[in-house]
Amino acid sequence: MLYRENGQFKTSYRADQAIFPIAQDRIAIALMLAVAFVVVPMLASDYIFRAILIPFVIMALAALGVNILVGYCGQISLGSGAFMAVGAYGAYNFFVRIPGLPLIPALILGGLCATFFGILFGLPSLRVKGLYLAVATLAAQFFSDWMFLRIKWFTNNSDSGSVSVNNLQVFGMPIESATSKYIFCLAVLVVVALLAKNLVRGSVGREWMAIRDMDVAAAVIGIRPMYAKLSAFAVSSFIIGMAGALWAFVHLGAWEPAAFSVEVSFRLLFMVIIGGLGSIMGGFFGAAFIVVLPIVLNQFLPALVGMFGIEISTAGVSHAELMIFGSLIVWFLIVEPHGLAKLWSTAKQKLRLWPFPH
Predict the structure, then answer these.
(1) 62, 254 in Cβ contact below 8 A?
(2) Where does the sequence pass through the membrane (predicted)?
(3) Under a CB-based contact definition with an 8 Å cutoff, are residues 275 and 264 in contact?
């Protein structure tokens, strides 16, 4: 009964098209933001920030970018790790080669570098689709690995390819503690998620979804496939590039090209599939599943099997982690192929009608 919308009347088109048209949703989002920005920094430990919260926030941002390309536009991509790497190294080069450049412009410039890189490797989407497009975007991953390992200029002539940043500041405030890093990343995620939500609800988002559903029919009704597909690659790469820069600057501090391997691309794709294709909320659910589950298994699996008198080694925990993780992914794909976001949407619809059966 708490989720009913009786008495909530919409008297204008603007009210009808609001992002959160139901008052309960607006209240819930406001409470969640208050908890995330105020309560969590007061209660969470340094370990929780560095091991769980910061990786979750940054990966949710990257999954949001992947979902725009894969979920909303239907262009399968396996080059997300490459876009993250380009964003990270692009931001690094601007940061170290332009004295006094603030952190936020460096992140934006890194995202723009990833945008041009994404458009370049998005050109094959004009001719191929499906598995062939996935292989074409996978080439971006191998090319970026080679580029950042062999061309020393990108790593500021570092022999090992490893680079680092320090003395990060935003508006004169240092970004050094785990709490400040978390709040900064969370603020970026909230802003980008709000912009992305408005974008996919507009004409551009409808063009992406038309291309996803049937590109030939979309072209017949006047949608330009070239513009729609390349704009999806551009927006997606920009968001993923910013996430890569945050991952490198804020979470890692020092990194090398192996930090953005093809494994990262697969993890991001799994986040989108598990969280829910074509859903902004799906990126958050998928990131939580991928980031939190391995840590939970690592912490509680030895205690669980110990209750039955079984001892398990560290290597055994690692192998069991992978097996359970893979089994859960397959189970989710079979039980709910539309992801966790679909389950969340179904639960909300049932709450709007509860306790009535219709």
Answers:
(1) no
(2) 27-45, 51-70, 77-95, 101-123, 130-149, 181-200, 230-250, 270-293, 323-344
(3) no
Q: Are the CB atoms for 279 and 298 separated by under 8 Å?
A: no
The DSSP bridge pattern shows strands 163-164 and 254-255 to be antiparallel
238 Cα distance to chain centroid: 12
3-state secondary structure of 73: coil
- The amino acid present at 226, given as its one-letter code, is M
How do strand 254-255 and strand 173-174 relate by DSSP bridges?
unpaired
- 192 touches 68 (CB < 8 A): no
pTM above 0.85, yes or no: yes
Looking at domain 46-353, which of 3.40.50, 3.30.70, 1.10.3470, 1.10.10 is its CATH number? Answer: 1.10.3470
At position 272, the amino acid (one-letter code) is V
The DSSP result for 17-64, as a single string, is T-SS-SHHHHHHHHHHHHIIIIIHHHH--HHHIIIIIHHHHHHHHHHH
- Sequence-distant (6+) residues with CB within 8 A of 159 are 152
Q: pLDDT band for position 358 (50/70/90)? A: low
pLDDT tens-place string over residues 201-248? 888 989 999 998 888 888 888 888 888 999 999 999 999 999 999 999
